[in-house]
Write a structure and sequence with these properties.
Elements: H1 3-21, H2 23-26, H3 30-54, H4 57-78, H5 82-85, H6 93-102, H7 110-129, H8 136-157, H9 162-176
Helix pairs in contact: 1-4, 1-6, 3-4, 3-7, 4-8, 4-9, 6-8, 7-8
């Protein structure tokens, strides 16, 4: 296994999950889907701030995993290969997170970094609405890759097995879905 393969597998799993459980979002046009994911990031920015200020580790962890899911889903909207963009040649996703954490520059906290990138994504969506001369796609995918990178790094710093946490959260969402009533 390699981090590259892990990330690709996660993107595939997320796509299958979205196809099965989020048809309401998949039927939207690309711009509306991008805005939807950007709204999620804005919501999570607030949750990260509240969790940090309140010392609520459970809320922080839940938000981290939900943000990770949204980052994968956002990448899939654009056909973005996160593994290639991050040059993910580490043996495992945890190793990649450790490498990122080792190289981390503590000028800005994770929460500030996440909020700033979410704001840049919101600017791209707003510019799209106004048809401004703005690199929408490059900004959205660049910010998404940076968010994904930050999430992996933060999970590593907090010693969270992000793949296991992802699998548990997806299972929780699928179990709670009314769709499960119609499965054999």
């Amino acid at each position: 296994m390699s981090a590259r393969k892990d990330i690709t597998d996660l993107q595939r799993k997320q796509l299958r999950h979205d196809e099965g459980y989020h048809q309401d979002i998949l039927v939207l046009d690309t711009a509306r889907r991008a805005r939807h994911m950007t709204f999620h990031n804005a919501k999570y920015s607030g949750r990260f701030m509240a969790a940090t200020e309140d010392g609520d580790e459970d809320l922080f962890l839940r938000t981290l995993i939900d943000a990770f899911i949204i980052s994968l889903a956002t990448a899939n909207i654009f056909g973005q290969d996160l593994a290639a963009e991050l040059d993910a040649d580490s043996p495992t996703l945890s190793d990649l997170g450790n490498e990122l954490a080792d190289a981390y520059n503590e000028e800005a906290s994770f929460t500030r970094t996440y909020a700033s990138l979410s704001g840049e994504m919101a600017k791209a969506c707003e510019s799209l609405d106004h048809l401004e001369d703005f690199p929408f796609r490059a900004t959205l995918t660049g910010c998404n890759a940076a968010i994904f990178n930050a999430l992996i790094m933060e999970a590593s710093i907090r010693q969270i097995d992000i793949q296991a946490a992802y699998a548990a959260r997806i299972a929780e969402v699928e179990t709670a879905s009314p769709r499960r009533l119609f499965e054999e």
